[in-house]
Predict the structure.
Amino acid sequence: MKRFPALTSVGASLLIALASPVLPTQAQTSAYQVVDRNRATTNTVQVQVAPGRATSISFSQTDETITYILLADASRLVYSTDAELETRRAKTVFLRVIEPLHFPGATTTPVTNLMVQTVDARGQNRLYTFDVVHNSNPRYVGVQILPALAHSQTSSVGNPNLMPDSIQTGLNIAIMRGYTAIDDPVVAKVRQLLELMWTENMTVSEAAYSVGIPLAVLEELERLSQTRQLSSFL
């Protein structure tokens, strides 16, 4: 089998990307599940709540304010906002679990939904739907809606090869060839990113933003995956 200089350059590029200054995983990992506004208005977003903890749904990074909230099943959950809805200044909803209540004639469900209507600076209304899931160990403290997450990452998002399987393959190669240690914080971030893409149906840009990993690292892993496919035919 021939060896190509490209393998050396890819490995060097990956080492540079992995060796760039990175904060510890826990410190840099976002505490919020970040969701692009376009996806949030066309898909149901899951939000996890736990007893004794507050969970937030924030529109603070957008130009939207909250105008209306509907909680389908209020028997185990209460909500509040950071400002009265009438003021048109509310930008965050806070959810808290309560002891189960019994309302005559009301129905209950293990997974209820929360609907939030907003209005932006141009007067455009948007409706968001969230599935509220009770979890004793939630992954995030809340959900943060971002206006246009992918704008600064168009080239990477448009790369059809930047998929979970190729990223996973590239990571395996990087570890096997010694380009990075298995206990490197960046490896943990890549694995967390893959879990988000597989289980939360996040786009690569959303997952990368959420775990705090540069897209350049993922592109290098994808290139490693491609070189493996190329060498298998030679």
Summary: The mean pLDDT is 81.
